[in-house]
Amino acid sequence: MRVGCLGPKGTFTEEATRRYFVEEDVEWSLFPSILDTLSALAEKEVDRVVVPIENSIEGSVTMTLDSLALHEDLFVEAEIIMPIRQNLLAVTGTKREEIREIWSHPQALAQCRHYIHHMGAAVKNFESTAAAAAKVAESGRTDIAAIGTELAAQNNGLVVLHAGIQDVPDNFTRFIVVRRAGKTFTSTERTILQLQFEFDQPGVLASVLNVFAGLQLNLSHIQSRPTRKKLGTYQFFLEVEAGWQDERMQKAISIVKTYGHQVRVLGTMNRHYVM
After folding, report:
1. Nearest one of 57, 133, 78 to 102, comparing CA atoms
2. Given 21, 145, 162, 163, which residue has the most CB atoms within 10 angstroms?
3. How many alpha carbons lie under 13 Å from residue 118 in its C-beta half-sphere?
4. Structure confidence by residue, pLDDT tens digits, 58-103
5. Pick from 249, 258, 257: which is nearest to 214 by CA?
6. Structural domains of the chain sorted by starting position, each given as residue range(s) with its CATH number in brackets
């Protein structure tokens, strides 16, 4: 199996991917961004990819949601939950009090927002935590640091100045395993839907949510994103605690479509914990 994930080597996504596919015979590919990762799957360069979708501190990874909406031939088949321990990485000889700038992925920086604030450091965004670590190592500077994994420190010859710097100790990220659509669905416990309204009027969202409530379907996550068609218009991503094959789920989708709205099943999945 050809599996791709967000790289370079040493990202949390790579760690989650390798733990999930530990018993598989895998040919690995690493990509520089979430968009590149999902595009590679759409273009059949790989058979599966893993990307982050939500963090317990910072919330949804909007790049993943937007990319899933962009590629209509992709389908989520599983979910991975992994604890995240953020670390301050720097070249040997760096003193914490002399750090003036911290580099990392926007999600990692946000997960350590209060820590960075107390340091009084500026921030710089990178496509991944591992890419930031590599650039810090390449620079040789002692006035900058990266936030990332211990593996990224090892891979790039950096030292861990401070471990576990995330603002909340119990920090978890959800990753999704994505494949191309068209294969038979297996029995699952959760479904992701993309919803777009055909008309805008007061109470339209509430009317849709009432359909799920009336069928005793719990919505564990609701996220709005711009449609990119017109300012002030939004699409919604719903996560429902029921498999796509559940009769209630089928009925809910049918009713919402009867209202004239667009509903797309982005995936149906089970949850897997890796430690």
Report:
1. 133
2. 145
3. 7
4. 899 999 999 998 898 999 999 999 999 999 999 999 999 999 999 9
5. 249
6. 2-83+172-180 (3.40.190.10), 87-163 (3.40.190.10), 190-273 (3.30.70.260)
